[in-house]
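To the wet lab folks,

You asked to see what we're planning to order before we commit. Fair enough. Below is the target structure as C-alpha cells, and below that is the sequence we designed to fit it. If anything looks off to you, flag it before the synthesis order goes out.
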C-alpha cells in the first residue's frame, strides 16, 4: 500500500473505532472499492496493526482505569471486589475471543487457499450482510440496565468473549456487539461503554503479538498509518464515545449495510 492509501485507512480507523459501525468493515469496503485489493487474511492482519494506533489512544484515555487494573493484577488478593471481578471478566473474555478469533482467521485463510474469489462485489455483500446483523443486534439492546462492574459474572465473560471473537469478521462491529451484549446482560450504558473499550486493549495487543510480531517489517508507510490512526483516535475518542452513548446507531448501520449490499449486487450485475 502506498502512503496515501495508508494515511486514508489510518484516518478511517482513528475516527470510526469509537462508533459502532465496524471500523474493520469500513476499512475493507474502502480498500476493496477504491484501492488495489489485497488478500483478505493479509488485510485483516493489516487492520489489526492499524488498531494499535487506536489502542494507544484508548490506553491514554482510560489511563486511570488501566492503572487501577494493573495495580490490582499485581495485588489481586488485596484489591477491591470490583477490580477483581473486572480482571476476571477481562481474562476469560480475552481468552475466549482470542481462541475464537484465531479459529475464524484460520478458516478464512483455508478458504483463500482453496481459491475462493474475494472480489469487491463479494466483499461488499459479505460486509453489508454483517453490518445488517450488527445494526439489528444494536436495535434489540436496551439502555435500561442497572448492573455495574462488581456485578459481573463468568457467564457475562463467556458471552462477551464469544461476541468479541466473532467481531474479527468485517462488518461485525466489535464495539457495537460488545456494548449491545453488555446491555443485553443488563449492564448500565456508561459501564458497558467503558468495559467494551477496556476489553479491546488486551485482545488488540495480544493479537498483534501472536499474528504480526514474527512477520513484522518496518515500512515507513505503515508507520505513518499508525501515527495517523493514533492522532485521529486521540482527537476524536471523547466526542465520539459520548456521541455513541447518546445516539442509537442501529438504524444508521442497517442503512449503511443495505447500501453496501446494493453496491455488491450492482457490481455482480453490471
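Sequence we intend to order:
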Amino acid at each position: 500500500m502506498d502512503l496515501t492509501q495508508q494515511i486514508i485507512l489510518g484516518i478511517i480507523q482513528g475516527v470510526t473505532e469509537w462508533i459502532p459501525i465496524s471500523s474493520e468493515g469500513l476499512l475493507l469496503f474502502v480498500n476493496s472499492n477504491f484501492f488495489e485489493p489485497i488478500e483478505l487474511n493479509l488485510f485483516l492482519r493489516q487492520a489489526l496493526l492499524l488498531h494499535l494506533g487506536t489502542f494507544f489512544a484508548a490506553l491514554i484515555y482510560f489511563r486511570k482505569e488501566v492503572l487501577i487494573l494493573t495495580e490490582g493484577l499485581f495485588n489481586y488478593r488485596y484489591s477491591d471486589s470490583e477490580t477483581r471481578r473486572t480482571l476476571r471478566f477481562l481474562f476469560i473474555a480475552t481468552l475466549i475471543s482470542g481462541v475464537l478469533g484465531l479459529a475464524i482467521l484460520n478458516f478464512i485463510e483455508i478458504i483463500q487457499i482453496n481459491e475462493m474469489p474475494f472480489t469487491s462485489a463479494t466483499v461488499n455483500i459479505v460486509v453489508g450482510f454483517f453490518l445488517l446483523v450488527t445494526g439489528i443486534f444494536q436495535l434489540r439492546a436496551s439502555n435500561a440496565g442497572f448492573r455495574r462492574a462488581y456485578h459481573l459474572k463468568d457467564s457475562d465473560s463467556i458471552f462477551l468473549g464469544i461476541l468479541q471473537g466473532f467481531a474479527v469478521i468485517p462488518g461485525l462491529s466489535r464495539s457495537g456487539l460488545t456494548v449491545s451484549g453488555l446491555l443485553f446482560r443488563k449492564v448500565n450504558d456508561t459501564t458497558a461503554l467503558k468495559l467494551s473499550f477496556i476489553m479491546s486493549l488486551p485482545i488488540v495487543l495480544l493479537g498483534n503479538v501472536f499474528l504480526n510480531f514474527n512477520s513484522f517489517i518496518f515500512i515507513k508507510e505503515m508507520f505513518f498509518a499508525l501515527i495517523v490512526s493514533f492522532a485521529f483516535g486521540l482527537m476524536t475518542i471523547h466526542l465520539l464515545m459520548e456521541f455513541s452513548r447518546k445516539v442509537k446507531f442501529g438504524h444508521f448501520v442497517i442503512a449503511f449495510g443495505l447500501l453496501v449490499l446494493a453496491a455488491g449486487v450492482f457490481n455482480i450485475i453490471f
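Structural context that might help your review: The chain has one domain: 3-269. Residues 97 and 165 are 4 Å apart (CA to CA).

Thanks,
Computational group
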